[in-house]
Design a protein that fits this description.
The chain has 292 residues and is of the alpha/beta class. It has helices at 2-25, 43-56, 68-76, 91-99, 129-136, 155-164, 179-188, 199-202, 209-212, 231-235, 256-265, 267-276; strands spanning 32-39, 59-66, 82-85, 105-119, 126-128, 146-149, 173-175, 192-197, 215-217, 219-221, 242-249, 279-280. The chain has twelve helices and twelve strands. Strand 6, helix 6 and strand 7 form a beta-alpha-beta unit. The N and C termini lie far apart (82 Å).
């Protein structure tokens, strides 16, 4: 009898431990833990989104700022499952997911502008898109001495390389580790045009403020006038270096990735995007109460 009771107690304890372990590891669309890999060029606005999401739900979101190439590679080999990207997947990438029986869920939540910046000592703050493309192709352009990118694997460099139809970069194209380093380099060097995410200008960190005071935003012309990468110009389709921002969820189940994507594309998330200086995918409604 004592042996039976001991075995019964052991079974009860094991069952209780397993159930506790399952509870701790449980992940739903609104609770649990998830790591989200974020394109470094739009990290500030996603930081705000994660902070508000965590304050509303029993969730812990770990953000990893990475270059676009690092994120895509991690998603393809299942090292990452949820990411913030500035492009959709290519047919070749989708084939890799299909072989793993996964259909990525891609949710657009904002339109971003790739901003061009220069040192305030540089006299000319106007550039044509054709000049930028020609420079990427290796041609001599009087108005451009060099382009500075945040990272050799960044989404901004890939964007302009695709636009110019080139795969190799010339010597006058500089790349660093992040947007902050690119901004600092431009602020200290005349004649260099920096290529950064607009979010780093609209939501600068305190330590970046001294460097931003030394730069100017370059107006870009394609077919019409020279325009700034502003919310209004993005909304009207006037700024030529615009791109969609998306949440790419490759979890394959209803987890926090789905919940965060719904939040960021929903009413509250879109208001955060609007406040950040980027263009929301859906402009939030405004309720006006009229009192007599």
């Amino acid at each position: 009898m004592p042996n039976f009771l001991n075995r019964l107690t052991l079974v009860f304890l094991l069952t209780w431990m397993v159930s506790c372990g399952k509870k701790e590891n449980k992940e739903t669309i609104l609770e649990g833990k998830v790591t989200i890999w974020v394109d470094e060029t739009v990290f500030p606005v996603i930081e705000d989104q994660a902070m508000i999401f965590e304050s509303q739900y029993d969730a812990k979101i770990n953000l990893e700022a990475k270059s676009e190439a690092e994120i895509i590679n991690a998603l393809l080999v299942d090292s990452a499952q949820v990411a913030i990207l500035s492009r959709n997947f290519t047919p070749q990438e989708l084939k890799v997911f299909s072989n793993r029986k996964i259909i990525p869920k891609v949710t657009k939540f904002a339109v971003d502008g790739i901003a061009l910046i220069c040192n305030k000592k540089t006299g000319d703050t106007l550039v044509t898109l054709s000049d930028v493309v020609d420079f990427m192709k290796g041609k001599n352009v009087a108005s451009l001495k060099g382009l500075a990118f945040d990272n050799p694997n960044s989404s901004t460099l890939r964007y302009l390389s695709d636009l110019a139809g080139v795969k190799s970069n010339r010597a006058e194209i500089y790349s660093f580790h992040n947007n902050a380093e690119a901004i600092k380099y431009v602020s200290e060097n005349d004649g260099i045009v920096g290529v950064i995410g607009l979010n780093w200008l609209s939501q600068p960190s305190p330590e970046m403020q001294p460097y931003l005071e030394k730069i100017s935003v370059v107006r870009v012309k394609d077919k019409g006038d020279y325009v700034f990468p502003s919310q209004n110009n993005l909304g009207e389709g006037k700024y030529p270096l615009a791109r969609d921002l998306v949440v790419a969820n490759c979890q394959g189940f209803s987890g926090l990735g789905m919940g965060f994507a719904s939040f960021i594309a929903g009413e509250r998330g879109q208001r955060i995007v609007l406040k950040s200086g980027l263009l929301p995918a859906r402009v939030p409604t405004r309720k006006i109460a009229i009192k007599k």
